[in-house]
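G., the chain you wanted modeled:
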Amino acid sequence: MLAFGGGAGMASQPKEVPAGSFEDRLRRWKYPEGIDFVSAEIEQAYRRRVQMFIDAIALRKPERIPVSPASGFYPFVYSGISAEEAMHDYGKLACALRKYHTDFLPDTIAGTALYGSGTVLEILDYKLYRWPGHGVPANEPYQCIEDEYMRADEYSRLIHDPSDFFLRTYFPRVFGTLAPLATIGLLSAVLELPSVPAFMVPFGAPSVRQAVEKILQAGQAAAEWIKACVAIDRETISTLGLANLMGGFTKAPFDIIGDTLRGTRAIMLDKFRQPKQVLAAVERLVPLAIEAGVESAKHSRSPAVFIPLHKGADSFMSIKDFETFYWPTLKAVVIALIDEGLVPYLFVEGSYNKRLDTIVDHEIPAGRTVWMFDQTDMKEVKKRFTGWACFAGNVPASMLIAAKPEEVRAYVKELIDDVGRDGGYILTTGATVDHAVPANLHAMIDTCKEYGVCR
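Predicted structure as C-alpha cells:
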C-alpha cells in the first residue's frame, strides 16, 4: 500500500502508476486536480485527513482516528433552514452546509449529492420516495415508499433484458410523467431501414411528446443542480480542507429488487414461492450493480463506493437465506469493484451479529473495503476484522439527541479503547443524523480528535 507522502504530505506527488489502478485512485484522492486551496495550511490539512483514511483502509495506525459522522439532514436543522428549502434553493443549501462544516469541522464533507433536487423529482413525479414538502413535512428527510413496481410474474422479463424492463416498464410506473414510455417499441428491434419509421410512431403521440419534454425539463434542472453541488463541495474542500469520502454508489443485487422493484414483503415471499427466479434475477443484476459503482465513481476524487445494505440484516432473513440469496452476489460486486481499483464502503444497517463469520471472506482482499456498522457488536467486529478489513461505527444517532455531552464523550472514549487503538477503524455514527443536540455532536467529533490520537 502506498502512503503517498506519509501523513501531512506536502512532499511531491508519487511516481506515475497505471490509470484507474487502486494506487492511481488514491493519488487522485490525496492530490486532487481542480481544487485551489486557499492556503498551504488548508492544503496540508486536506492531505493529512485523506492520509488518515488511507491508513485506516490499509489497516495501519493513522496519525489519528478519522471521524466522519453520517450527517444526514442535520446541517439544515442546525442552520435554521428547512430540508425543503435545501432541495430547491441551492444558495440556502450552500449557506447551511458552510455553517455546519465550519462550526463542527468533521474530517469529511456532507456531500451535496445526497440531498437531491426537489425540482427534478417534482418534474418527473417520482413515486418511490416522498421528500420534504412533497409527502413528508418540510423539515424531515425523504422516505422510501415501497410498492410492487415489478409484478411477481415479471421476473423473466427483468432477467431477459434489464435495461428494456427499466425503460419501458419500471420507469413508466415509478415516474408519473414518464408513463407514456410504456407505449414505445423494443429498442433492440430497430434492425433495418423498414424498422425505423415504425419504431418512431409512438413518439408522434402527444402524450409521448409531453413525456420527452418533461425529460428535457428535468435534464435542465439536473444540470443546474449538479453545477451547484460541484461548486459547494469544491468550496468546502478548498476553504476548510475537509476530505470527500464517498465517490460512487451502488447496491447489493438483492436490494435492487427488494428496495426498488418488489418491496420487502414481496421479495421475502418470492424467496419461498419462486426461489429460482429470485436467484436468477440477482445473478443477472450483478454486472449492472458493478457498472453502477464504477460509472458513478468515474469522475470522483474518492475511490470509495457507498453500498447501503438493507434486506440482509439479521432481522430480515435466516443465515441460510443470507448465504443463498444475499451474500454471493454482493460478494461478487465487492470483488469486482476492488478489481477496478475502488474501495467498497458497505453500510451495514441493522444488526449483522449472525453474519460476521460469513462476510469475513478471505476471497475479498485484505485492506480494500470499509464496513460501517449500525447495531452490530463492535467488539465482535474487531475480533473478526482485525487484519482483514477496516470497520467504522457506531455512535448511536439517538445518543446525539437524548444523551448529555459527557455521556457522548464517555461513549466515544470507550469505543476507541475497545476497538480503535490498533488502526483500521473510523469513528462514525451508527445511522444518519437528521436531528442532534449541537453540544453532543461537538462532543463526538472533538473527543475523537483529542482522544483518538494514535501517533
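The two ends are 19 Å apart (CA to CA).

Shout if anything looks off.
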